[in-house]
């Protein structure tokens, strides 16, 4: 698969020194490359890029108008690449529990948990997710962008995502979140999962 468009602009380097584009190209050209096989950073990046490959192939396989299909594939590519770049950067550390607990989590890890909570809803795909402290050691606010299937009424979608993110913050992450701001950036024509939420 050609990923040239995905690397226009930023092509972040992994802790091992290789960039995302180098990792992908090496995996395609030399699958048994010793560095790639033995490097946990390259293996994690390949796992993330595999998701991108699956999404793009799925988009291209759909029966749709050629131009619309290409546009959908480009949106999916950009969205997943944003997630890959975010997951490769730990970002700031955020406090958990009470100040005396001296417990912390990286912003990237918290955002990943919140995106997973939102994507447990059928035909919901989470993109950018930012976690911001209102005051030092205080509650946080979460800002998230999502794409969703056409079957969702927007007010209901936003409310369901808020409920899931707040529950994940309390039960899975252990962080106090005072508000969740949800922005729907794209509506997609995707088949609903029979009205059931994904595990």
Q: Concise description?
A:
By secondary structure, the protein is of the alpha+beta class. The protein has helices at residues 20-29, 34-38, 40-61, 66-88, 107-119, 154-173; strands at 93-96, 103-106, 124-133, 140-149, 177-188. The protein is flat, with a radius of gyration of 18 Å.
Explained architecture:
This is Asp23/Gls24 family envelope stress response protein. It comes from Streptomyces ochraceiscleroticus. This protein is an alpha+beta fold and 199 residues long. It has two domains: 4-88, no CATH class; 96-188, Cation efflux protein, cytoplasmic domain (Alpha-Beta Plaits), CATH 3.30.70. Helices cover 47% and strands 20% of the residues. The protein has six helices and five strands. The chain has helices at residues 20-29, 34-38, 40-61, 66-88, 107-119, 154-173, and strands at residues 93-96, 103-106, 124-133, 140-149, 177-188. The strands form two sheets. It has a three-stranded mixed β-sheet. A two-stranded antiparallel sheet has the order 1-2. Helix 3 (40-61) packs antiparallel against helix 4. It starts with 19 loop residues before the first helix and ends in an 11-residue tail after the last strand. The model is unreliable at 1-9 and 192-199 (pLDDT under 50).
